[in-house]
Structures
1.
Amino acid sequence: MPVGIPIAVAGVTGGALLASSKIQSNSNTDAADTRARAATEAARIRNQFDEKQLEYLKGESFLTRQQDEINRRANWYEHDATEQNLHNRLRDSFSNIYGATTAQGLNETNRFNVGQGNLYDRWTTERGDTNTKDALQYQQMSDIRAMLGSRPRGSLTFGDNPEFRQSTYTPGPRPTVTDREKREFVPSNVPFRA
């Protein structure tokens, strides 16, 4: 066999191998480039996702802090209203007790004064009856003495009035409840904007 044919076959085989290895090399390069682009794109998408997730978590954290501050403020105002309500009830209770005590004292004083007035009226009526009787008797005795020529008796005197006293009621000092010391709400350092 001629020497040129194996060389030609070897050349064709070598050229085919060379072309095949070139094609395989290009394919491997393209595959590596595609894998690199895919990995870069995946990393970029992952980075965007992580940034969006971080932004979302920051927003959620801010909203949670803001809601906590709103709840804290609402609780403070509710507590303040409860304290003011208790203060008002205490003041009203003191005022009602004072009014009830004053009314009771005035009623008792008025009852006593009415009783004293009734005693005085009864005494005046009885004394008037006695005085009228004594005056008639005195007049008759004076007439008899005058007829007998005796000296007339002295002037007719009536007994002194007994002491009837009227009572007055003086209420004690009105209780005072000082105004409640109001404290202002102190907000925390939570900003209301993200």
2.
Amino acid sequence: MKPNGIHDRPVWTTLDVLANSFLKDDNPRDRTAIGTLLEMAGIRREDIGSMLDFLETYGILVTIRQPGPTSVSPATFSYQLGSRHLWDYFMAVILMEADGGRAVELLSKHRNAALMYAILLVEKNGILPLENEVLLSALGADGARHVTIDALASADKDTVGKFKQWVLDEMAEDRESFAEIVNGIIVRVACERDHPLGPLMFDEYMRTFPTPIERDRMWSIPKEMSSGYGLSMYYERDAVRHLPRLHKDDRWSQMPLLLAWCLTAVSNLRATISSSTA
């Protein structure tokens, strides 16, 4: 048997077996150990070599070569997981179907799989990750919130619109939460047309402030911060270096709209220069 593609059933069986095994212990395994796993899963012994070669060719598994104890000793080879996105997906699918206790234990060890788990909660179950007890137990409240923001920025845009009110509520919570949403979601999805959590939503929110002064309390960088004016200036210089980049095929409702709002922020850098030259 020579696998023809990633969708062949023996390939999926192999990926399922290896994902379960590496979830328990992500240390590299030698060819014999992996061969035993595959044979137990129903892969014929004579096909294991070609299967491993196939997975290595496509970067699904990565080979580690360890020299022998002397210059004439044969090298030994072991395997570790290759393409992280693929393995994170398989691990997340397995954990979605696992009992709560096992899922909590393994999600706390595999943070990349936790993000994919959160994305699947959004896309497949329509659940806000922050409200999932398994994820909360595995990552804690702060970790679950961060992975929720990442998941809303990464999930299919057709599945995230139902969480728009949560995003708006988080933006209104306080300045820190506002900044996390802007940087963690809005900026990241601004390149996607008609994204429900993109610049148009941001524009809608920014227009709810009754006066520019009230808006600037959230939007403009304050002259004084908890650690002093110097820190404030540092953050503003950093913000200027990381303004959104425009692309020639952007619509007005994407990055150009977000950049237009960036230009409305009060600049403490400019204020300092003006006062020093007055």
3.
Amino acid sequence: MNWRFQGKRQRVNLSRYAAQGQTLVQELSYEFAEDDLIEDARQRLKDTELNDWFKWRDDNLELVMDFLKASPSNRDRYKKFKIEERSLLVLATLQCAMEGAAFLDEVNMATLEPGRSYRAMLHSAALAHHYMIRADIPYWPYTNDGRISNTGFWDDDAPDDDEL
């Protein structure tokens, strides 16, 4: 791909997208809690391992991504989202939204702009990736060691009222 830049180069600021991504994460968190999907997801995942959960996400990636970009009214309206495993769909979408917001945040913090040497660009990209994969994204109901947690969805990191 050949990029041609005219005039002054400007760094793309992704902070607005990252912030709006966090808003979508909160929206999906509330949908997951308000629709009583938490217990259903826990029951469906209780006998599975974390790798099985990631396989479910991979197998349903197109549906999860469609759900992610749908507005709240469209998520309620469209038949393709009214599946038996809706709790898993909402949970997978919530986790993907967290991953996407973390990605945008880290890429925004990195100095990824045209005109730098490929070594400097690779350095910045590697650092962004390093911090992104270490982002604190909870894969509830699994613990860090891949076991099923006995805690509730909000028990570990419930948002404070002033954070909402």
